[in-house]
């Protein structure tokens, strides 16, 4: 059976692809940039990644038509708070137009629980997508989920940031809203469980976990799991916009995503359409079990996907392949070349562990300050960290950088800056052999935009001397 999974680099899509393959399905994944999904060699016979942008109908012409099942997992709420409704409508319509040309016999859509009479913009948009998909005349199975808890999920990471960073929380009144959080494992089981089941055709089901909690209770249970004492004080005076800024500055989320989440939290997301439990009977995880399992995966360094690595992790549209060639003309460059005598593999391992909890090997306090300044100007900041402490692939988020190219065999790592800048910036690490000597070549490239960009470069130049020299030396000697 051939299954199409849209949004293959997203948090749900990436996990679903691997889960479906483990069940014996042949999967076609769609991505906006093929360079952002690396298929393990052992799975290449069963995973086919194809480039397609559902905002551009012309790019869909090369997609397969002999598919049996299609998962629609595209959303745009983190791209633009003002325009995500229009973007979601367009992508859903273009998908519907495409799917009509195929042999598909079932569309499976993961949306959000939308049972209240008055819905947030986000939940209303999700519901509108359901209506568009139904116009395809292909049976649609809609699964509406509450908050999804799993290692790397946006909800999990936001709660983690709040609990682990704030001993005392002055929180908005929406913390008293009720929801029914569901573990990512149960989400995967439900998505796969409805495949090719006629009793789910043209039906809408709510999916949730084993219990109903308030957001305040979720924070308290999370703190208990982490062995932390936290005080949470709810106040009625924080407007949605102030609440969004509160989430944005304390957590790793973008402002657009924070605003969408805050607006949705006024709605109660509790399951009412419960028919799925009879069709796909599952042992449902409690919220605490989902949190504990997430930390087990993090401890084992087995986080399969993260919302930060998807385009949701940045407000900047980025096609990796367009930035791999670092420009030469009109650029400022800071190039450091250090000869070293230790094993090149040891230095490569240090390079590929850069960022996240490891830090930047020199003056981490200044890197954190730069991340804080970036947040003040509406950027992503350093809080995104990295998904895996030792492994990185093209397309991954790495603090306020995006990985463009990562090849240990080639001994090269190339990063592109997603911080707020008056220009574009690249940071490249390469290990070269010259005249029987090993060289670490570290190059920072900046392409300024106008006078402001040039002033910015010269203002940070004094810091480069200390930071980049120190970073390169420590990359060579760390772990000796």
UniProtKB/TrEMBL annotation:
<protein>
    <submittedName>
        <fullName>SDR family oxidoreductase</fullName>
    </submittedName>
</protein>
<dbReference type="GO" id="GO:0005737">
    <property type="term" value="C:cytoplasm"/>
</dbReference>
<dbReference type="Pfam" id="PF05368">
    <property type="entry name" value="NmrA"/>
</dbReference>
<dbReference type="Pfam" id="PF11066">
    <property type="entry name" value="DUF2867"/>
</dbReference>
<dbReference type="GO" id="GO:0004029">
    <property type="term" value="F:aldehyde dehydrogenase (NAD+) activity"/>
</dbReference>
<feature type="domain" description="NmrA-like">
    <location>
        <begin position="2"/>
        <end position="229"/>
    </location>
</feature>
<dbReference type="InterPro" id="IPR008030">
    <property type="entry name" value="NmrA-like"/>
</dbReference>
<dbReference type="InterPro" id="IPR051783">
    <property type="entry name" value="NAD(P)-dependent_oxidoreduct"/>
</dbReference>
<dbReference type="InterPro" id="IPR036291">
    <property type="entry name" value="NAD(P)-bd_dom_sf"/>
</dbReference>
<dbReference type="InterPro" id="IPR021295">
    <property type="entry name" value="DUF2867"/>
</dbReference>
């Amino acid at each position: 059976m051939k299954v199409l999974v849209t949004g293959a680099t997203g948090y749900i899509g990436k996990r679903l692809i691997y889960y479906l393959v483990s069940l014996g399905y042949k999967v076609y994944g769609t991505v906006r940039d093929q360079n952002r999904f690396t298929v393990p060699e052992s799975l290449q016979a069963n995973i086919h990644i194809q480039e397609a942008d559902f905002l551009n109908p012309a790019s869909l012409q090369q997609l397969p038509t002999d598919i049996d099942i299609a998962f629609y997992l595209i959303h745009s709420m983190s791209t633009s708070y003002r325009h995500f409704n229009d973007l979601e409508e367009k992508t859903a319509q273009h998908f519907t137009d495409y799917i009509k040309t195929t042999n598909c016999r079932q569309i499976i859509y993961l949306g959000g629980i939308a049972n209240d009479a008055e819905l947030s913009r986000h939940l209303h948009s999700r519901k509108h997508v359901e209506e568009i998909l139904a116009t395809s005349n292909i049976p649609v199975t809609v699964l509406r989920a509450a908050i999804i808890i799993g290692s790397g999920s946006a909800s999990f990471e936001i709660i983690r940031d709040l609990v682990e960073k704030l001993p005392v929380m002055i929180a908005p009144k929406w913390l008293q809203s009720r929801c029914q959080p569901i573990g990512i494992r149960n989400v995967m089981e439900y998505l796969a469980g409805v495949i090719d089941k006629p009793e789910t055709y043209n039906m809408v089901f709510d999916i949730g976990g084993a219990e109903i909690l308030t957001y305040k209770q979720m924070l308290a249970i999370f703190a208990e799991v982490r062995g932390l004492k936290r005080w949470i004080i709810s106040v009625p005076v924080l407007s949605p916009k102030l609440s969004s800024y509160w989430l944005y500055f304390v957590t790793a989320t973008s402002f657009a995503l924070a605003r969408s989440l805050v607006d949705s939290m006024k709605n109660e997301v509790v399951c009412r359409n419960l028919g799925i439990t009879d069709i796909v009977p599952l042992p449902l995880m409690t919220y605490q079990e989902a949190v504990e399992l997430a930390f087990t995966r993090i401890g084992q360094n087995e986080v399969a996907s993260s919302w930060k690595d998807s385009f949701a992790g940045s407000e900047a549209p980025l096609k990796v392949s367009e930035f791999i060639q670092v420009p030469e003309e009109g650029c400022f460059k800071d190039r450091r070349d250090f000869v070293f005598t230790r094993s090149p593999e040891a230095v490569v391992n240090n390079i590929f562990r850069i960022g996240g909890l490891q830090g930047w090997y020199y003056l981490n306090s200044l890197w954190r300050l730069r991340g804080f300044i970036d947040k003040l100007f509406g950027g992503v900041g350093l809080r995104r960290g990295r998904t895996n402490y030792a492994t990185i692939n093209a397309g991954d988020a790495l603090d306020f950088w995006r990985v463009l190219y990562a090849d240990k065999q080639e001994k090269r790592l190339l990063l592109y800056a997603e911080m707020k800048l008056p220009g574009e910036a690249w940071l490249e690490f390469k290990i070269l052999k010259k005249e029987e000597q090993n060289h670490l070549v570290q190059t920072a490239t900046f392409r300024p935009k106008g006078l402001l960009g040039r002033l910015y470069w010269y203002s940070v130049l004094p810091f480069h001397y200390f930071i980049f020299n120190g970073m390169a030396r420590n990359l060579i000697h760390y772990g000796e």
